[in-house]
Amino acid sequence: NIDLASNLLSGNLPPDLGHRLPKLLAIQLAGNNLGGVIPVSITNCSQLIILELSTNRFTGSIPDALGDLKLLQYLTLQRNNLTSDPTSVELSFITSLTKCKNLKFLSLHDNPLNGLLPASIGNLSASLQMLYIGTSGIKGTIPSQTGNLTNLLLLDLRSNHLTGGIPTAFKDLQNLQGLTVGDNNLNGTLDNLCNLHSLTLIDLTTNQFSGSLPECFGNMTSLRDLTLGNNFLVSA
């Protein structure tokens, strides 16, 4: 389509993309120089499984309407200039994505989202395995409902402004293999990680964790990488 190619060459997605190509299964445009807003019409691509727009120059809010892509499995929007809805202190688009019951991979890191994680994060797809929201200006605490994501393999919340402790509900993340929450303002002890025997990577560096390293860490036989620098931990 000549008009579509012209739009892409001009650096923007056409506003009527979803109406022109409603049967698309995948949109993979990562690593280009595309800008402007993500057109809401993209939700007309109701069969979309993969939406990959990372490492571009997209601006504006992440559309809540992305939740209408009910078959979506893979969503990557990292490394753009995307924001959340400015009328809400919470990341409202996360609530909308709870309608995507097949979502397995969600990457939002390196965007100025600057909001709170909603409790609805625990209602994301039961199939979700990878969740990346690092370096995104996230504030507030880690919702306890995150513990509902029992098939999660990796949780990356590094380099934000998170406060509070590791939620007790993390004990339910029995499949979790990687946890990176370094460079935040998290505090408390590390006891709530004791039951996560599948962990191979833990990065807690540059926070305000205190107390001693729990003896249970010695039972994490899969652990390969443990980073604890710049905290207030003491020897037992």
Short description:
With 236 residues, this protein is mostly beta strands. Helices cover 8% and strands 20% of the residues.
Keywords:
236 residues, mainly beta, elongated
Helices and strands, with pairings:
Elements: H1 2-9, H2 17-20, E1 26-28, E2 35-36, E3 50-52, E4 57-58, E5 74-76, H3 92-97, E6 105-107, E7 130-132, E8 139-141, E9 154-156, E10 161-163, E11 178-180, E12 187-188, E13 201-203, E14 208-212, E15 225-227, E16 232-234
Parallel strand pairs: 1-3, 2-4, 3-5, 5-6, 6-7, 7-9, 8-10, 9-11, 11-13, 12-14, 13-15, 14-16
Query: Unreliable runs, pLDDT <50, ≥5 residues?
Result: none
Rg, rounded, reads 19 Å
Which percent range describes the beta-strand content? 15-25%
SS elements, strand count: 16
Please give the oligomerization state of what you see.
single chain
The spatial strand order of the largest sheet comes to: 1-3-5-6-7-9-11-13-15
Considering DSSP H and I runs of 4 or more, what fraction of the residues is helical? Answer: under 10%
Mean pLDDT: 93
Number of helices: 3
Largest sheet: 9 strands, parallel
Content-based structural category = mainly beta
Order of helices and strands: HHEEEEEHEEEEEEEEEEE
Distance between the ends:
67 Å
> Per the principal axes of the C-alpha atoms, what is the gross shape?
elongated
Structure explained in plain terms:
By secondary structure, the protein is mostly beta strands. 8% of the residues lie in helices and 20% in strands. The chain is built from three helices and 16 strands. The protein has helices at residues 2-9, 17-20, 92-97, and strands at 26-28, 35-36, 50-52, 57-58, 74-76, 105-107, 130-132, 139-141, 154-156, 161-163, 178-180, 187-188, 201-203, 208-212, 225-227, 232-234. A nine-stranded parallel β-sheet has the order 1-3-5-6-7-9-11-13-15, with no helix packed on it. α3 links the parallel β5 and β6 (105-107). It is elongated and about 65 Å long.
